[in-house]
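Let us begin with a simple case.
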Amino acid sequence: MRETRPQYDPTCYLCPGNKRADGSVNPAYESTYVFKNDFSALLPDSPLGEEANGLLISQAVRGECRVICFSPRHDQSLAEMEVPEIAHVVDTWADQITELGAKYRWVQLFENKGQAMGASNPHPHGQLWACDFLPTLAKKESEQQLEHYTKTGQPLLVDYLNQELEVGSRIVTQTEHWAIVVPFWAVWPYEYLLLPKRHVRRLPDLSVEERISLAEILKDGIGRYDRLFQVTFPYSMGWHGAPTDGEDHEEWQLHAHFYPPLLRSATVRKFMVGFEMLAESQRDITPEQAAEKLRAI
């Protein structure tokens, strides 16, 4: 069943006008609101240095963590917001990446939605972690995209999406500017890969038209999740764009990953255990089956 929440919760740390965990008071914000994370995992003034002890090496890093409240309403998700409101969230994402990217090499924008994905607060919100290093997964993506671009002169994910659009069986939904596909290599049952149809390296590079189109496909794609099992669908979502290190990175293509844990119903969860944890991931349904179910909604 769908979760019922009040439009305003006086006990919520993220609602307008409420006191947060560190004693700060939120302003009476009326749209998207950004603030420094009260429990930041990365700090801009951490002492730098490296320590080595045989095989063990550690290195200090610097960064900043911020929280983005998508809406002042406690009872809404991205899928339940109106397209212009979602477009404002997209603009905020882009502005934050521009600001933090001027100081840091990588800006990781993400949303954890629902208790199943560790969200401590149901108020619609996401986070930004900016850091002075390239994280492991981002580095792997960067290396693979560069290798393909060096060989072909084309961005890997542009070529990949064109192939998926030609085949069609894993496409969930699309607009003039965007497409959602259950990727060929998907591990989670209803995993999404969200891609622009033209070559775009970073969120701030999107045109006004592309940002509105992105808001539309976000509402559509997440709405399909919610209707699949008639529940506010939990997921972890994150954007990957070219590193903000001053280089052009023509090999990079902007994209977002959606990793939802639900498998066969609102109460049956996919767990990564046993063989998957120790050897290799396996699928419970094929990406084609997943895409077909989501298209039909």
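The second case is a distinct protein. As before, the sequence precedes its structure tokens.
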Amino acid sequence: MLENYFPVLIFVLISIVFGAAPVISGLVLAPHRPNSEKLSRYECGFEAFDGARTKFDVRYYLISILFILFDLEVAFLVPWATIFNEIVQTDSVKWFGFVEMLVFIAILVVGYVYAWARGALDWE
């Protein structure tokens, strides 16, 4: 019975090796020479090693959330685009698949226009 799980064990061990090898090789082989450039501020505008209770600008969170929302749009558009020919060739879902994606894109455009009109994309 346990011999059926042996390929799974081999797969798990190989995946651990492939996951850990780049991390370990980076730690061993990479030079560690911190300087003022590497320790400077990140794009969030705070010092890299500052206190944990520092106030954070809300606009940074807003831009990052908008980026994630519009980035997830691609996660829905790419699978739909890869099977678009199959959707169009099937008579029962030909218009449904197309209109469904148009509604999805329309909702995203309305959200984008709303965020733009409210000034969420202006950093000042």
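The chain has four helices and no strands. The radius of gyration is 24 Å.
Keep these points in mind for the review questions at the end of the chapter.
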